[in-house]
């Protein structure tokens, strides 16, 4: 099976400051993958490079076999990559329903596209609050809305940056439940989060970054049985 996302030799910088050094990553269709590491190690910059928000200086990024490095963000999104960014960035003065339908599309002609009814089934709280404005939602509800809005574009790859950061425990559980259901449906996902036990239970493979370099890659079984890796690269 060919990778859906393939990154080779990725190098990215902000002005004179290089952040990523020869990052490599592959995600197969239907896999859930993680990017792990302490704060400031290059996870979000990797995501920004994938999305064309911070174009790489060197290396290649391929999606569905075609190179996307160098393309503008709107063209990358149109190919089927959706980002739920850190901070959510929903429209505060639109209702939940308006947020969801604002960018609804089925560009990849999915046979079972995401619709309002499917989003409301995944996140019943959003149905209850469909007429509330974005700013009236709690942080967890805003995160559900951000995920739902991304799914309404019917992406082939869903990227979540700090999916459960700062959420109340009950709402965090709702996000994890939704991610499990998305995996079961065959959705390909790249997720950044700090709850390692949860990620081991959810994801197929993991990549750890340290100072912009890949220092470990492997599956959940390997990561579970290497607590020294957690201590060295992930503990605060």
Please, could you describe this protein's structure?
By secondary structure, the protein is of the alpha/beta class. It has one domain (5-233): P-loop containing nucleotide triphosphate hydrolases (Rossmann fold, 3-Layer(aba) Sandwich), CATH 3.40.50.300. The protein contains 10 helices and 10 strands. The chain has helices at residues 43-50, 73-78, 96-101, 116-122, 124-128, 139-151, 169-184, 196-202, 220-224, 227-233; strands at 5-14, 17-27, 32-36, 58-63, 66-67, 81-84, 157-161, 188-192, 205-210, 213-219. It has a 6-stranded mixed sheet with strand order 6-7-8-3-9-10, sandwiched between helices. It has a 4-stranded antiparallel sheet with strand order 2-1-4-5, covered by helices on one side. β7, α7 (169-184) and β8 (188-192) form a beta-alpha-beta unit. It starts with a strand and ends with a helix. The mean pLDDT is 93.
